[in-house]
Automatic annotation (TrEMBL), chain A:
Gene: metW
InterPro entries: Methionine_synth_MetW, SAM-dependent_MTases_sf
Domain of life: Bacteria
Protein name: Methionine biosynthesis protein MetW
Automatic annotation (TrEMBL), chain B:
Species the sequence originates in: Chitinilyticum piscinae
Free-text function comment from the UniProt entry: Transfers a succinyl group from succinyl-CoA to L-homoserine, forming succinyl-L-homoserine.
Protein name: Homoserine O-succinyltransferase
Site-annotated residues for Important for acyl-CoA specificity: 321
Pathway noted in the entry: Amino-acid biosynthesis; L-methionine biosynthesis via de novo pathway; O-succinyl-L-homoserine from L-homoserine: step 1/1
Family named by the database record: Belongs to the AB hydrolase superfamily. MetX family.
One Gene Ontology molecular-function label: homoserine O-succinyltransferase activity
Main location: cytoplasm
Gene: metXS
Length: 198, 379
């Protein structure tokens, strides 16, 4: 059985970036799907942070170490350099203090991995051009009822990393689970970025 | 409460220890007795035992009833029983009354065999670590080398932590609920006001009130009333009592007028009629003295580095007596000590008392965690 196929495409790519035996912190880890997979396939030392108690229960059910906490309060509970990889998957667009969390990620870990919906995706641009706020596969909310408060394009995110003195190690932009090589900021709806200190 | 998933009718047992014990204070007891109850069945390799450590006013009667006609079941009957989070179909669960208690274990109100009179003021103060030593002897007696889990709320959580530090190899999982790594000045202050209420009661007689045929009821009542205020949250109290008047109108006097006064006095009266004041003093001192980092240069991380257990830490948002911030200190120390830990911060309006109440997310976390322990020991 190849359980890798049961992972969401973006999580599968993240999993591919993580070396066996690494110490991994998953921020906004949800039900612990990624950590659980990494623990059973790559023997990682995993730790999750999750705000929602129902998701915390799901993580505990999987036997994962999980800390119930709001990422907006930072990662003060973790020592400098405690982890190899720190993952923030489809969460950053709902956070207030984006610079803060990116800096915290590289304080507690050597490598950061962020995934986010690409606001520069052509369908989003088209909906804006026709006078409406975008609603799409990766941004499935109406403007008046959404957890998302900070949208960016792939280019915007890259620029922010540069401003914070961070280096992009790898970047993949997806649409419907498939990598987009040509005009990724236009044709890709979901971005995955692996970064570290410059 | 459904009877279907109750442990049913239970019987308390007494373990007599003739081997003397020297306590942290230097005082010694030549012999002592511990009251305990067990639920469920110890498996063949004695790997499914869970120890429940009680809080300030707790005891060994954790679950079930002594007789069908009992009004109330054990103090954690909602958590412990067949099919409940601490599932007695899978675990062998032990509750005991700690040394110094007043529910049958040797304590200040017990007869000192050397004098034939109650210990009273001569009963030594007992620390959390002393309790753990006596609990370890009880575990030896029951043939338990290693607990699947040691679980406690509040002062009970401190015992669970102390177990993991004092006997790392004897604890697989340590569940610390609504607890703290040590008390703050404010928390010690509350305890001292409670103690002062007892110590200054004219019927306290320096702790030897038994021989005067009286009990310092007024002091103990005040201590309990104060305690209850700190166990509830402002919101919870407001929701339950508000400014509601017993008779519906102002009486312009000092009798009970507001419902909250009625509640506190009732709780104070009930408690002071059945609990021993010396035990209350002793339990509050055990809380104050607890500081597992103390023998590690004040470093809790160093203390926790010695542990081998996996930890689950749980706190409740409206608990201000043992606030989530204090539980997060435990979690941070465990993380810094590189120990496996999970932490849940449960939304609740019930203050410190929340750890004793039914709450789906709380029970969900407990059930999920204990379910994994059951699977682990079965593997």
């Amino acid at each position: 059985m190849s359980a890798v196929n049961t992972l969401r495409p973006d999580l599968k790519l993240i999993a591919g970036w993580i070396k066996p035996g690494s110490a991994v912190l998953d921020l906004g880890c949800g039900d612990g799907e990624l950590l659980h997979w990494l623990a059973s396939h790559k023997q990682i030392q995993g730790m999750g942070v999750e705000k929602d108690v129902g998701q915390v229960v799901s993580c505990v059910e999987k036997g994962l170490s999980v800390i119930q906490s709001d990422l907006e309060y930072g990662l003060a509970q973790f020592e400098d350099g405690r982890f190899d990889d720190v993952v923030l998957s489809l969460t950053i667009q709902a956070m207030h203090n984006i610079e803060g969390i990116l800096q915290e990620m590289l304080r507690v870990g050597r490598t950061g991995i962020v995934t986010f919906p690409n606001f520069g995706f052509w369908e989003n641009r088209w909906q804006i051009a026709t006078g409406r706020m975008p609603v799409s596969e990766t941004i499935p909310y109406q403007w008046y009822n959404t957890p998302n408060i900070h949208f960016c394009t792939v280019n915007d995110f890259d620029r922010l990393l540069g401003k914070l003195g961070m280096r992009i190690d790898e970047q993949i932009v997806l649409h419907q689970g498939e990598p987009v090589e040509f005009l990724p900021n236009l044709l890709g709806s979901l971005a995955l970025v692996r970064f570290s200190k410059r | 409460m459904t009877v279907a998933n109750s442990v049913g009718i239970v019987t308390a047992q007494k373990a007599v220890f003739d081997q003397p014990i020297t306590l942290s204070s230097g005082a010694a007891l030549p012999r002592y007795e511990l009251m305990y109850e067990t639920y469920g069945t110890l498996n063949a390799n004695a790997s499914n035992a869970i120890l429940i450590c009680h809080a300030l006013s707790g005891h060994h009667h954790v679950a079930g009833k002594y007789a069908e006609t009992d009004k109330a079941a054990g103090w954690w009957d909602n958590m412990v029983g067949p099919g409940k989070p601490i599932d007695t179909d899978r675990f062998f669960v032990i509750g005991l009354n700690n040394l110094g208690g007043c529910h049958g274990s040797t304590g200040p109100s017990s007869i000192n065999p050397e004098t034939g009179k109650p210990y009273g003021s001569t009963f030594p103060l007992v620390l959390v670590r002393d309790w753990v030593e006596t609990q370890a002897r009880l575990a030896d007696r029951l043939g338990i080398k290693q607990f699947a889990a040691v679980i406690g709320g509040s002062l009970g959580g401190m015992q669970a932590m102390r177990w993991a530090i004092s006997h790392p190899e004897r604890v697989r999982h340590c569940l610390v609920i609504a607890s703290a790594p040590k008390l703050t000045a404010q928390n010690i202050a509350f305890n001292d006001v409670a103690r002062q209420a007892i110590l200054t009661d004219p019927e306290f007689h320096g702790g030897d009130y038994y021989e005067h045929g009286v009990v310092p009821k007024r002091g103990l009542r005040l201590a309990r009333m104060l305690g209850h205020i700190t166990y509830l949250s402002d919101d919870g109290m407001g929701e339950k009592f508000g400014r509601e008047l017993k008779s519906g109108e102002y009486k312009y006097g000092f009798d009970v007028e507001f419902q909250i006064e009625s509640y506190l006095r009732y709780q104070g009266d009930k408690f002071s009629g059945m609990f021993d004041a010396n035990t209350y003093l002793l339990m509050t001192k055990a809380l104050d003295y607890f500081d597992p980092g103390r023998h590690f240069g004040g470093d809790l991380v160093a203390a926790l580095k010695t542990t081998l257990a996996k930890f689950l830490v749980v706190s409740f948002t409206s608990d201000w007596r043992f606030s989530p911030a204090r539980s997060r200190e435990i979690v941070k120390a465990l993380l810094d000590a590189r120990r496996p830990v999970s932490y849940a911060e449960i939304e609740s309006a019930h203050g410190h008392d929340a750890f004793l109440m039914d709450d789906e997310p709380y029970f969900g976390v407990m059930r999920a965690y204990l379910n994994n322990i059951a699977k682990e020991i079965a593997a």
